[in-house]
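Can't attach files on this board, so I'm pasting raw text. These are the components:
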Amino acid sequence: MQKKSYRQAVNEALRQEMRRDPRVVLIGEDVAGGHGGSGEIDAYGGVLGVTKGLIGEFGADRVIDTPITESGFIGMAAGAAATGLRPVVELMFVDFLGVCFDQIFNQAAKFRYMFGGHARTPLVVRAMAGAGLRAAAQHSQMLDSIFTHIPGLKVVMPSNAYDAKGLLIQAIRDDDPVIFLEHKTLYDTETDVPDDAYTIPFGEANIVCDGDDATIVAFSAMVPRCKAVADKLAGEGISVEVIDPRTTSPLDEASILESVERTGRLIVVNEDNPRCSMASDIAALVAEKGFYSLRAPVKSVTAPHTPVPFSPALEDLYVPSIARIEAAVRAALSDPARIAAQ
Amino acid sequence: MQFTRDQLLDAYCRMARIRAFEDRVNIEFSNGNVPGFVHLYAGQEASGVGICLGLGDDDWIGSTHRGHGHCIAKGCDVKGMMVEIFGKEGGLCRGKGGSMHIADLSKGMLGANAIVGGNPPLVIGAALTAKTLKTGKLAVSFTGDGGANQGTMFEAMNLAVVLKLPAIFVLENNGYGEGTGVSYHCGAKDLASRAAAFGMPASTVDGTDFFSVAEAMREAAERARGGGGPTAIETTCPRYYGHFVGDPQLYRSKSEIKAARENDPIGKFRAKVVAAALLGAAQLDSIDREVAEEVEDAVAAASGAKWPSPAELERDVYVQY
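---
Top answer:
Structure tokens for the assembled complex are below.
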């Protein structure tokens, strides 16, 4: 056990699973890099270095660089998964889902159902998601809600290095198609990560910190921000429970409902655009199944209904900030409507 | 290319079975027994069977929305298919797929695909599996002239060349992408030349002549299994029915359809093998009766089968959730 970055944790998960199972292959653009050039192979190891070193150990038959041809290679990975391999394919930026979505949502996601249970599609699609690097509108989205919506897909969003390794190993061993979203700004964050392989089950939330006054449900890069808010409010004697569901499909509904039953106040924090998002999904869940637990309306803190702007000044307004999250929690705790209704 | 008597009988049997099946589905659909949409392969039998005859159960094919012919050519169970097309319990896909998603992975049939151009990337995935696990198997992607314009087709072709995959792209040119003729919708002189531009050997053969198709396939299969990478084979083979059952085919002249029916691939095969005394007319007649009976039994089974139970609705979305 030692401190490792999220990037190292993902690399380790891939390496250990590739050692364990010869059917696990990596596919993607520049997952190594350097083919066809006059310089080195493994020149990139992934555009942010996540898959560095893997081609050195496993060779080009198992770390497969592709041309820029997402429909082609995402579909190739889906077909390979249905016929005996266990591919981990990288969609470099989740924003590129537009050029290959059919292969994910109409093909991979639906084989098992359409073919009467006779297909098994152990595919993992890893993608970088999220804003904060000033990469602008077409390289900065979350889009988790779009995948979550599709029956047949599982969706995973680790918020820290420890979870990233365990969830990725789980994803590789899972026999269903998994979308694995890695937030770009989390790659350098560190936690203690065991050296051995381990798994974290899907559909099991992590209770980041306990509390009785309010429940925050947060995802991915929002989790550490919510933890920071909880820590600050603890200093004022306010105890906030922060729940990281880790997977949006399947979703740990029970943990969320149990928490809101105790606290009566829910704040959902999600970097995605607000319409049809995980924020609205969880608010609806609680309105439907936990209505009588609520002592205040649900608060959601999300990105606005806009594309991601380029300018740092604007991008910093787009992404839910610690200040906005804190304001939402305080508002939930002192909702005037409740007081007026009494 | 030499064939044994058994292979020739097998070829005739598969083609006759496809024809009997499709002609009957046309009737059953018109009688209101088949839900949804069906797209019939009659007229194109020599293409599907010429390609699939030499394949094993662990070679893969991927098909289009016009998938019954490929399914039968690959050896799938006719009864299971009919039950599936009727949407009943006990169908090949438990009633969950239907005509446009009919599949049997145990026979290497990776499915009909309702998305035009949907299968080429999937099929090169099957080819990648074969290459990676060194199974010596190959994967065939069937696409029509319509689907041959989809980006997925081009992407899969390039990727198959770049990764040197044991894949074969069969471009079944039946002259029409839905209701639009190929002379309008394809800018190049043919489909094969576009495949060749991606760096693979490509040829165009008469898709109504079983022997021409089989010869082109023999060469492509040898290349694929030997590690030589992909091949494209364009087969020209008119379809007899409309794009879907119910399509009045106003975009085709009656004389064109008549000419296609007079150039029947099954009739031509029969004439050739009987004239060469390879098979006897009586043998072939006997096969005609057998497949007619098979199809009759299949319809009886499909008509008598129950609808899937309500529990089936939520089954098999995931292996485990």
